[in-house]
Write a structure and sequence with these properties.
The complex is a heterodimer. By secondary structure, chain A is α/β, with parallel strands linked by helices. Helices cover about 30% and strands about 20% of the residues of chain A. Classes of the chains: A alpha/beta, B mainly alpha.
Chain lengths: ~325, ~325
C-alpha cells in the first residue's frame, strides 16, 4: 500500500466524496486500467484528461457503473461501494451526462427531465391508476431551469425545438436535479459550438457552486483550464498526476499527458532513475487544490525537494 | 394543447411557430381529424343516408376488427417497430378459439382464454426475437406472419369452423341507443382505445414507450428497462390481436382460416393515417382511431353513393402517401 488515510492529513481526507483505488480492467490482452487511482473532493470540478488509449473512458465507465473493474475498490463518502450497472451508480446518487445529447427529442422538456423517474399523482389516482402528476413535474422542471439559469421557460416545448446547447442544458439540469453525490460529465461540449460550450461550462460552475462536485471529462484544454479546480491526468491506464490548473500551464499538462514529462505519480523511467529532480511527489503532497479545506499547495520546488522521499502515489 | 408562451425574443417566436406547425402537421391529430370531417361532410351532402345513427354504427362495426389490430400496431410502431404478423396472429387466434370450443368441445370461455393466450404468446415471441437477437421487427414479423399463417392452416386443416357457442359471438350482439343498434364489439373497441390512450398519455409506462421509440439509447441511459418494455409492448400487442380475433369471430360467426390476410397492412394504414410516425416516438392512439375511421367512412360512403369500392382503395393509397409525406416534412423541419 502506498497512499493510505493515515498518510494524508485527516482534514484533507474528510472531504473526499468519491475515491477509487487500484482499479484494474483488462480486455483480453489490453490493459485499459492498470492500478488506477481516483479521488474527487467536495465542491470541486475535477477534470479528467488523457490521450486516446490512456484508459480515460474506461475509468469513467467504471466510475459511472457501465464497466465493472477486475480489481480495485471504490469508496463513496468513505464507504465501500460496488456498481454493477449505471442504475447502481444512479441509485448511489451519481448521475452522468453524455456527449451525444442523450434526450428524447419528441418529448417535452419536463418529460425528458423526469424520464425514468416520473412523479405520480398523490392518492389512488397515482397509486392505483398510475397517473402522472404533469403539473408537478412541470413546476419542478421550471424551478430547476431557473435555478440553473438555463433560460428555458416553457417546459412543454419538445426538446427537438431547442438548440444543441439548450438540449445539453436539459440533460445537465436532469443530472443536477437527481444527483445526490456527484455529476459525471463525459465530453459534454463535444457536440456543441463555441458559444453553447461556454453556456455549458457556466452551468458546470453553477452546479459546483450549489455544492455538487463534478467530474468533467474533456479533450478541450482551454475548457479544462477554465472550469476545473483540479486536473486528473490519465496515462497508460493510471493516474500519473493530479495538478492544479493554477500551478501548471496547459503545455505542462499536455506534456505530462503525452508522456513527454513524467507525472509525479509515474513510474520512474529507467533513464532518469537517478535524477531526483523529477521523481514522484510524496503521497501526502498530492495537492487538494481548489477546495476550501485544501491549505497550501506545495510549490514545485518543495515537491521536487521532497520528491524522492516517498513512493509515487498509487504504486505499491 | 395549452402552450405557455416563450418569452425569448426571435428564437422563441420561431420555436413556437414551429411548435404550431408541428402540432398541425405532426403529433397533433388535427390533420387526420380534418380529413375525417371533410370525408364526413362530403358524404353527408352526397347521401342523406350517411349521417344516420344506424349507418355510423355500421361504420364502427366495420372498423372494429382492424381498429383493434391497429391499437396493437400503434404500440409497436411507437417503439419504432412494425408488425406485419398481426393479421396472421389474429387468424390463428380465431381458429384456436373456435376449434377448441367446437371441435374439442372445450368450455367456450376457456377456449377464448387460450386463444388470447396464443396470440399474446406470439406477440411475446416477436418481442423476444426483436430484443434478444436484435433482429429488425420487419423481418421478425415477416417470419412470424408466415409461421402463424401456416399453423392456422395446419391446425384448421383448411376447414372453416361453424356452429359456434353463443359466448364466442357475444360481441356481435347489439343493444339500442334510441333508434340505433350498436354492437358490443364496437363499444369494446372504443373502450380499448380509451384504455390505451390513458396508458400512453397519462402514465410513466406510456412515456417510456414514446421514449424508446424516440431515442432508444437515451431511454436506456435514463434507467428505463428497455428490453422488458419492448417485450411488454409486443406481448400486449399480441393480446390486442387476440381480442381482435374474438371480435372477428363475433362479427362473422365462424372461425375462418383465411381471415385477416390483408389486415396487417390495413392496420398500418390506420396508424399512418392517424399521424403516427413510422420512425417511432411520435403519434397517438387517438390518431389511429381517426385513421381507422377515415378508411371506414370512405369505404362506407362510396358504397352509399354507389361508387365501386375499389375507389376506396385508390383514395386510401393516396392518403397514406400524403400522411407519410407530412410526417417526413415535419421531421425534417425539426432537425
Amino acid at each position: 500500500m502506498s497512499v493510505t488515510a493515515d498518510e494524508t492529513t485527516k482534514a484533507g481526507r474528510e472531504d473526499i466524496v468519491f475515491e477509487a483505488r487500484g482499479l484494474v480492467k483488462r480486455y483480453g490482452h489490453v490493459t485499459a486500467l492498470d492500478g488506477c487511482d481516483f479521488e474527487l473532493r467536495a465542491g470541486e470540478v475535477l477534470a479528467v484528461i488523457g490521450d486516446n488509449g490512456a484508459g480515460k473512458s474506461t475509468l469513467i465507465k467504471a466510475l459511472s457503473g457501465a464497466v465493472t473493474p477486475d480489481l480495485g475498490e471504490f469508496l463513496l463518502d468513505g464507504h465501500p461501494v460496488r456498481f454493477h450497472s449505471p442504475a447502481d451508480a444512479r441509485a448511489h446518487g451519481i448521475e452522468t451526462v453524455y456527449q451525444d445529447l442523450a434526450v428524447a427529442p419528441a418529448l417535452d422538456i419536463a418529460s425528458n427531465m423526469f424520464l425514468g423517474r416520473e412523479v405520480r399523482r398523490r392518492g389512488p389516482l397515482g397509486s392505483v391508476l398510475r397517473m402522472l402528476d404533469k403539473p408537478e413535474m412541470k413546476r419542478q422542471a421550471a424551478q430547476q431551469m431557473s435555478e440553473l439559469k438555463i433560460g428555458l421557460r416553457s417546459m412543454t416545448n419538445p426538446v427537438e425545438e431547442l438548440s444543441g446547447g439548450q438540449r445539453q442544458g436539459v440533460a445537465v439540469a436532469r443530472a443536477a436535479a437527481f444527483a445526490r453525490k456527484l455529476v459525471i460529465m463525459d465530453e459534454p461540449t463535444a457536440a456543441l459550438g463555441v458559444r453553447e460550450s461556454g453556456q455549458v461550462l457556466e452551468l458546470i460552475g453553477r452546479i459546483r457552486d450549489r455544492g455538487l462536485p463534478v467530474i468533467l471529462i474533456s479533450h478541450n484544454m482551454p475548457q479544462v483550464f477554465e472550469v476545473s479546480d483540479r486536473i486528473h491526468i490519465q496515462r497508460l491506464g493510471r493516474r500519473v498526476d493530479l495538478i492544479s490548473p493554477k500551478e501548471y500551464t496547459m503545455a505542462e499538462a499536455v506534456a505530462i499527458m503525452t508522456g513527454a514529462v513524467p507525472g509525479r505519480a509515474e513510474k520512474k523511467p529507467a533513464a532518469t532513475a537517478n535524477d531526483g529532480a523529477i521523481t514522484a511527489a510524496p503521497a501526502a503532497g498530492v495537492p487538494a487544490v481548489g477546495v476550501p479545506a485544501a491549505s497550501a499547495l506545495p510549490t514545485r520546488q518543495v515537491r521536487e525537494a521532497t520528491g524522492s522521499l516517498a513512493d509515487p502515489i498509487g504504486k505499491p | 394543447m395549452m402552450t405557455t408562451t416563450v418569452v425569448e425574443p426571435a428564437a422563441g417566436a420561431r420555436a413556437s411557430a414551429r411548435a404550431g406547425l408541428r402540432q398541425v402537421l405532426g403529433i397533433s391529430t388535427f390533420g387526420p381529424l380534418a380529413a375525417l370531417f371533410l370525408a364526413g361532410i362530403f358524404f353527408s351532402i352526397k347521401s342523406d343516408r350517411f349521417l344516420t345513427g344506424t349507418n355510423l354504427s355500421l361504420v364502427l362495426q366495420q372498423v372494429m376488427v382492424v381498429g383493434t389490430l391497429a391499437i396493437g400496431q400503434t404500440l409497436v410502431i411507437l417503439t419504432a417497430g412494425i408488425d406485419l404478423s398481426n393479421g396472421a396472429i389474429m387468424a390463428l387466434g380465431n381458429i384456436v378459439m373456435t376449434s377448441l370450443a367446437v371441435e374439442s368441445g372445450l368450455n367456450p370461455y376457456l377456449a377464448i382464454a387460450l386463444g388470447l393466450l396464443v396470440c399474446a404468446g406470439f406477440g411475446l415471441l416477436n418481442g423476444g426475437l426483436v430484443t434478444s437477437l436484435r433482429l429488425p421487427p420487419f423481418i421478425v414479423t415477416l417470419g412470424t406472419l408466415n409461421i402463424a399463417f401456416a399453423l392456422t392452416h395446419i391446425y384448421s386443416d383448411e376447414q372453416t369452423v361453424s356452429g359456434l357457442p353463443s359466448a364466442l359471438t357475444y360481441f356481435g350482439k347489439t343493444f339500442s341507443i334510441g333508434q340505433t343498434d350498436v354492437t358490443y364489439g364496437s363499444v369494446l373497441m372504443l373502450l380499448l382505445f380509451a384504455l390505451l390512450w390513458y396508458v400512453l398519455s397519462q402514465t410513466a409506462a406510456g412515456r417510456h414507450v414514446y421514449a424508446v421509440g424516440d431515442n432508444h439509447e437515451a431511454a436506456r441511459r435514463t434507467g428505463i428497462p428497455t428490453r422488458r418494455l419492448l417485450l411488454t409492448v409486443y406481448a400486449a400487442a399480441g393480446l390486442f390481436y387476440g381480442i381482435a380475433a374474438l371480435l372477428l369471430v363475433s362479427r362473422t360467426g365462424v372461425g375462418d382460416p383465411n381471415a385477416g390476410q390483408t389486415d396487417n397492412l390495413d392496420s398500418i394504414t390506420a396508424v399512418v393515417l392517424g399521424g403516427t410516425s413510422l420512425f417511432g416516438g411520435r403519434g397517438s392512439v387517438v390518431g389511429t382511431l381517426i385513421g381507422a375511421l377515415i378508411v371506414g367512412v370512405i369505404r362506407n360512403g362510396l358504397q352509399l353513393i354507389g361508387t365501386k369500392s375499389i375507389y376506396q382503395v385508390l383514395i386510401t393509397g393516396i392518403l397514406v402517401i400524403v400522411a407519410v409525406s407530412i410526417d417526413q416534412i415535419a421531421r425534417r423541419r425539426n432537425q
